Amino acid sequence: MKAVSRSLNFGKSVSDNGWGMFTTFLKYKLEEQGKKLVNVDRFFASSQTCSVYGYKNAKTKNLALREWDCPQCKTHHDRDVNAAVNIRNEGMRLVNALP
Ligand SMILES: [Zn+2]
Question: What's the pTM?
Answer without folding.
Answer: 0.74
